[in-house]
Design brief:
Strand content: 15-25%
Number of strands: 14
Radius of gyration: 44 Å
Shape: rod-shaped
Helix content: 55-70%
Largest sheet: 10 strands, antiparallel
Length: 359
Amino acid sequence: MKKKTAVIISFMLVLCFSFGASEVFATPLSELQDEIDQKQEELKEGQKKEKDLSKQVNSLEETIYELNDQIEVSEGELEVLKKDLKEAQEKVDAQNEELGIRLRAMYKNGSVGFMDVLMNSNSFSEFLTNMDLVQKIYASDKDVLEELQDSHDKIEKKKNKVEKLSKELKDSKQAAQSNMAAVEAEKQKIAKDNEKTAAMLDDLENEAAAEAARLASSAQSGATSSSSTSSYGGGAFAWPASGTISSGYGWRICPFHGREFHGAIDIAANSGSAIVAAADGKVIRAGWNGGFGNSIQIDHGGGLVTMYNHCSGFAVSVGQTVSKGQTIAYVGSTGSSTGPHLDFRVFKDGTTQNPNSYL
């Protein structure tokens, strides 16, 4: 950004020395730069919000995964408890049935079978012994039944507790899913806003680059020390990089900004391979240029300027005179780029041109 501002200021200073009406050009370029700064700040804030929302989504996803694991464990435990409870109930029922059989044998019409015990006893002492034995058997059966019932009740209590926990986990999962859906929707909205802001920023940077190129070209043409000529007579341009066109000039779908007008041709090439000057001229810009990454502009005279973007590095500097076919930079993927390539642009009096008309 500092380099971009410095270059723009240098263009304006050149105009001040070359033209008496420099203020006419300075104002729109300054306004463009203010808009660019504002959009960059908006995009920066929007991207931070999007990043924060992404973190929230990731955190909620982790929470849901953890809840799924806990629900799976609780459901498994619940199945075991249901099985244990069924077995405990069967034991209680069996003990109840056994006790019932004995009671039916011991009681007749609601009273102890006193005569049965007496008739089967050879003496009063044996009768007392038999009565004591019957009572002990009955008491033992009751104890066993109570123990079984107590075990059953404990299992049922634990089952109810696990069922409650499982419900709470499922409710928490549903709440987390609803929250995540809301956050994801907000994230998508912010992402779309960021795309629009990025598209506007790209348009503004294109406009500023074109205006800066026009002003610089005018200044160079008007300066007595300039190597530029009043008209371009260098013939067809040299192919600026060794590769094939991966995206042509005109309307296209951009992976960053959606549908946009592409004021360049993209030449797919190996990273680090040479980028050459399309024609003789003077380097009027070499530095970082926002979404264009490392960028070079060359003034060829007659209001004709070429621009080479997404470079990995430079082989020339501002103010240097270059020859057609001379290496000026190297292919890279800096700025808004999906891979190594050269974004090659041509401007005539600040207006973008189809590079194919000059190659």
